[in-house]
Amino acid sequence: MHNIINRLFPKHCISCSQQWDYLCLPCKRKLSPHPEICPYCHRASKDYATCLDCKMEKENYLEWIIIPFAYTDEVKKLILKVKYYHKKDVINFLVDRMIIALQTNQILQQNLENPAFCTLHSALISFVPSHRYRRLFVKGYNQSELLAKNLASKLSLECKQFVRKTKRTKSQAQLSRAGRLKNLKGAFSLDSKNSLNGNETILLVDDVTTTWSTLNQIAKVIKTEFPKIKIRGIVIARHMG
Questions:
Q1: DSSP state string for 41-92
Q2: How many Cβ atoms sit within 10 Å of the Cβ of residue 3?
Q3: Alpha carbon of 71 to those of 6, 22, 134, 168, 239: distances in Å?
């Protein structure tokens, strides 16, 4: 059945249009890994960890943010396929790359191999929520949630929503850092149905980020109530705009 569908509706590379898959092998080789940096000061930092200086800043709430790819044209087109067309094959490809990035993160692997850490910090996956108006009337789904649920399924972990978006916001893309922070103020609140006990490690999933403002704001909402929770982010790519 799968071969018949492929014959009737052949896939074409989003970059070069060659009949192959959503991204052909030569174009896959054009994908560039993102350098390992601190999510706040952007200085080099092993395993994308928040550096010691930035950990001292009280408004920084993330342990780290893993970024598999630089925001190239190829990655942008893949993300748009997920964002507006819900392409299952593209989601699978991107999530597989997220898993590789997680598997090669030495800090994370050391934690997972430590029985005491695993007993104390149960691992959960969550995502950046969208406002219900956008989810129900604009797109019909949340691409971050799609990625998170696929990732959770492949890693045999629970995927839960701990924060709700209670305010419709402008697109963050064209705003300055100060504008982004103002735009997000009061936008998120802790879900009253959450089942956190305060000792979890949460992997927060999003599709693309620029300044981490959204991820950091969600982490702030959770850690204000549960300060011992460890929150780590993973995104497909970082937009340099």
A1: T--B-GGGBPPHHHHTSTT---SBEE--EE--HHHHHHHHHHHHH--HHHHH
A2: 7
A3: 29, 17, 24, 26, 5
Maximum pairwise Cα distance, the chain? 57
Domains with residue ranges and CATH for the chain: 1-29 (no CATH), 31-238 (3.40.50)
Q: What is the mean pLDDT of each run of 10 residues along the chain (241 residues)?
A: 52 78 83 93 94 94 93 88 77 91 82 62 85 50 89 91 75 55 68 82 90 89 92 90 60
State the DSSP string of 128-161: ----HHIIIIISSS-HHHHHHHHHHHHHT--B--
36's tokens: 């390992």
Quick check: 107 and 183 in contact, CB under 8 A? Answer: no
Task: Locate 108 and state its tokens.
Answer: 């994370």
CB 205 within 8 A of CB 147: yes
State the Cα–Cα distance between residues 155 and 189, nearest whole angstrom: 27
* Percent of the chain as helix, strand, coil, to the nearest 5: 40, 15, 40
Q: Do strands 201-209 and 230-238 pair parallel, antiparallel, or not at all (unpaired)?
A: parallel
Torsion angles phi and psi, residue 9, rounded to 5 = -130, 75
CA–CA separation, 236 vs 210, rounded Å?
11
Residues 79, 236 contacting (CB under 8 angstroms): yes
Helix (H, G, I), strand (E, B) or coil at 16: coil
Burial (CB count within 10 angstroms: exposed 0-12, middle 13-18, buried 19+), residue 237: buried
Model pTM score: 0.83
